[in-house]
Specification:
Elements (H helix, E strand, L loop, with lengths): L17 H6 L7 H18 L1 H19 L4 H32 L5 H40 L2
Helix pairs in contact: 3-4, 3-5, 4-5
The structure holds adenosine-5'-triphosphate.
Organism: Acaryochloris thomasi RCC1774
Pfam family, one: DAGK_prokar
GO cellular component, one term: plasma membrane
Length: about 150
């Protein structure tokens, strides 16, 4: 369970300097800056979290298949929403893991375990829901296309 924390800053005298304190509150003072910080979060999750990459790929395939199969727009929207929900849960899971690691500093704590397990469970539940939705909406038309193609 030991892992490298990205840019962990020791809470020594130097890290309490006015400059560091000022830098730690980089307030997004305009819309563009807010998007930049949000995009930095997406990039971080994509680069560091294998599951986020897998879910991005699967969600894109499901949406692409929905477009190819000419699903009604409401059904496409449902596929998009459930795929998006999995990515959102992955992002929240990543954020929570970072906060927990920051808080307990790589020591074992029962509450840290509960927090991380529940966050991971939220990803699992949303992924299961996405699989059920994709199966219900994509498999019947896909089966029809495959049957027609194979005669
Ligand atoms: N500080 C801790 N105290 C107690 N248990 C922990 C702690 N850190 C992690 N765990 C346990 O180890 C599991 C994996 O934690 P870890 O931080 O390695 O997540 P991860 O494998 O990176 O998860 P993900 O694949 O979602 O990124 C947690 O679900 C939790 O059960």
């Amino acid at each position: 369970m030991k892992k490298e924390l990205p840019s962990a800053i020791p809470l020594d005298q130097e890290s309490q300097s006015p400059l560091r304190r000022a830098l730690s509150f980089q307030v997004a003072d305009n819309l563009f800056a807010s998007f930049r910080y949000a995009w930095a979060g997406v990039s971080y999750a994509f680069v560091t979290q294998r599951n986020f990459r897998i879910h991005t790929l699967i969600g894109s395939i499901a949406l692409g298949l929905g477009v190819y199969l000419k699903l009604p727009s409401v059904e496409l929207a449902v596929v998009g929403l459930t795929s998006g929900l999995v990515l959102v849960m992955e992002l929240l899971n990543t954020a929570l893991e970072a906060v927990v690691d920051l808080t307990v500093q790589q020591t074992y704590h029962e509450l840290a375990k509960i927090a991380k397990d529940c966050a991971a469970a939220s990803v699992l539940i949303s992924a299961l829901a996405a699989v059920i939705v994709a199966s219900l909406l994509l498999l019947p038309p896909l089966w029809a296309v495959l049957s027609a193609t194979m005669g």
